Amino acid sequence: MTAITGGPDPMRCEPLFRPKSVAVVGVSATTALSWGRIALERLLRGGYRGEVFAVSRGPLELPGVRTVGSLAEIGYGPDLVVLVTPAETVPALVRQARELGSGAVVVFAAGFAEGGNTALEDELREAAGDLPVLGPNCLGVVSHPAGVQLSTTIFLDRERVPPGPIAIVTQSGAMGFVLADLLEQAGIGYSYYASVGNEACLSSNEIGRYLLDQPDVEVLVLYLEGVRDADGLRALGRQAREAGKTVVALAVGSSAAGRQAALSHTAAVAGDHFLLATLCRQEGIHLVTDDDQLVDAVLCARKGTTLPPAPRLAVLTMSGGAGGILADNLTALGVRIPPLSDATRAKLAEVGGVEAADENPVDLGGNIDRWMGRVGDLLGALDEDPELDGVVLYLTFGDRFPEAYHRLAAAAAEMRTPTWFVWACAPPGELAKVGRPDTVLPSIGALVRRLRVLVPDRVPEAVQRLGADNRPVWTELRAIPLLESAGIRHVDTVAGIDLAEAARGWPEPYVVKGDAADVPHRARAGLVRVGVNSAELPAVLDTLRARLDEVSTDPDRTLVVQPLLPHTEELALGATRDPLYGTAIVLGAGGDRAEDPTAPRRALLLPATPAQRAELAAWAGDVLAAPVPAVAAAIDGLIQILGDHPEFAEADLNPLCVTGDDLVAVDALFTAQEASRD
Q1: CB 473 within 8 Å of CB 518
Q2: Has residue 482 got a pLDDT over 70?
Q3: CA–CA separation, 102 and 21 (whole Å)
Q4: Shortest CA distance to 147 belongs to which of 163, 126, 166?
Q5: Strands of the sheet with 285-288, listed across from one edge
Q6: DSSP secondary structure letter of residue 578
Q7: What is the pLDDT of residues 134-175, one digit of tens each?
Q8: Are 500 and 522 in contact (CB under 8 A)?
């Protein structure tokens, strides 16, 4: 794989996950339920084979453990030092571990930046130097291949499934073990776990880089309460993609309440969730919204299941009612349920067994008992249809022929086209016997949740628009030459005194607008009239001119007139500069829908590859019914403008009207960086 350059060497995490010696500092000789004692005993029960030291004030009688009064008494620096001591003692102990030559330190104690004590955390960081420290305010580390389990959680005392190809890095210790439990319930074991806490020294990204390099890791699971290093997260996604691996992230912070909880928990600062979603999609990271969905994403990742935007699915069912419910729910996700081609319907008819409907959903009717042996061949006919992106099979009960249902589950799992088998009301224990949670699901709700991972275009939060206060504005009239020089066509526009005369050569009706740098949102100020005919035009011009004089002091304020452009769709294309994520191109539904947080929209973080630009344009074709080449040209044009004008903080082209194979801007606004207050 291609090495990811920049930042600390991730191999410095090796002593954290494969230590040859471990010292636990703060082990009580009298209190069996103290955190130090619990952590030490869990390490011993986990099968660790290296040297173990207990730093304690009193004698301990634990087989295989050497008890000492201080780290210095060991005589050398253990590979891994685990501090289970009060917060105020931590900096000095970290410094001592570094001076002794230890390889890494774990700090359980809270009471640092998450509680407002940033000075103590700064002191810890200074004491650590280049020594990798996990925490503070963390719940430890687990490395099953090395027999390491250093945590106080009761979860580690449970019986578990064998270690599997999952690594978990979490900014919330407890939440990380919840995810481990849910994955194990789905039959997927984990091999590595790290709770990073406040990330004073070791970040999620650095630990993730190390774990992705491990040959026994296929999927890296992240729980994020904030993103401090967007470039590092992008690099993590690229590293995974180049290695043929997957990153799945569950992130808090899409709501104000969620951001506040994260801040008080680990002192993390959450960035704009829409831009986080953009980064993840662009770099191949699967971003999910809850713990169950994370399990779905891991199952999809391990199987390699993907779907394009607005995918086309076929539904094969024994119940017309279920077919309708499936169609409604899948359509609401942005999935298409298209009529089947004549060729596919002919293949279904040749197989036989379709008694009720053969379009889509395909309804087998109530006599499926007679045709059970043909269902596999019907699936095969759908699998051969190149116009389908996925197939859903819905069957109920199966008490009389569970073996046939098991065969169908195996057939569905082996299909070329991604296929899901919803076995509703299965006999008790049958789904567990099938053992295919990536393919076989118990309900329509479970299927919808699974597909939401694969069709994630409905983003929970839109980019917040920047305010115009203290920001120089390039109005539409000033922006037109910029657009045209970048190859973005703008509707014909006239400005000046005798606008009624200038507009006479256009077909009616007209659009009349005020154009002023200090009124960027002119529709809200009553400075836009649409559908004005030639007879009305003089009076409308007088009215808007008076209104413009009321609300604007811009000496260059003026009125503009444009023809009302016939079009089929409206898009919004814009850009914003974010201090964490960088420059983002934002594309979505335009006109009034641009203000609707549920309307489809996507973003592209710069720099972006030609393939990533093309992917955004293709998405607009699938989801927004836009001409793909024209969208691609508009994206490239806006990127050119932003490159030529680094002073621009925000761009807003809304709407871009679809006229045949072209896009035409009928409004535009560029906002520069905040003006200096000097």
Answers
A1: yes
A2: yes
A3: 10
A4: 163
A5: 148-150, 141-143, 190-195, 166-170, 219-224, 246-251, 285-288
A6: E
A7: 999 999 999 999 999 999 899 998 888 999 999 999 998 889
A8: no
How many Å from the N-terminal Cα to the C-terminal Cα in the chain?
A: 50
Q: Are 108 and 134 in contact (CB under 8 A)?
A: no
The secondary structure of 473-508 as a DSSP string is: EE-HHHHHHHHHHTT--B---EESS-HHHHTTTSPS
Tally of residues, the chain: 678
Q: How far apart are CA 563 and CA 510, in angstroms?
A: 5
Q: Is the dihedral of CA 623, 250, 202, 16 positive or negative?
A: negative
**DSSP, res 115:** G
Task: Tell which residue, 675, 668, 654, 639, has the closest CA to residue 475.
Answer: 668
Structure tokens at 315: 């539904």
Tokens of 344: 């596919």
Helix (H, G, I), strand (E, B) or coil at 470: coil
269-299 as b/e: b if 16+ CB within 10 A:
ebbbbbbbbbbbbbbbbbbbbeeebbbbbbb
Q: What is the pLDDT of residues 516-543, one digit of tens each?
A: 999 988 888 899 999 999 899 999 999 9
Find out whether 225 and 252 touch, Cβ atoms under 8 Å: yes
For 36-62, the DSSP string reads: HHHHHHHHHHTT--SEEEEE-SS----
How many angstroms separate the CA atoms of 384 and 380, rounded?
A: 6
Residues in Cβ contact with 644 at an 8 Å cutoff, skipping those fewer than 6 apart: none
Q: Please list, in sequence order, all residues whose beta carbon lies within 8 angstroms of the beta carbon of residue 174, skipping any fewer than 6 positions away.
A: 139, 153
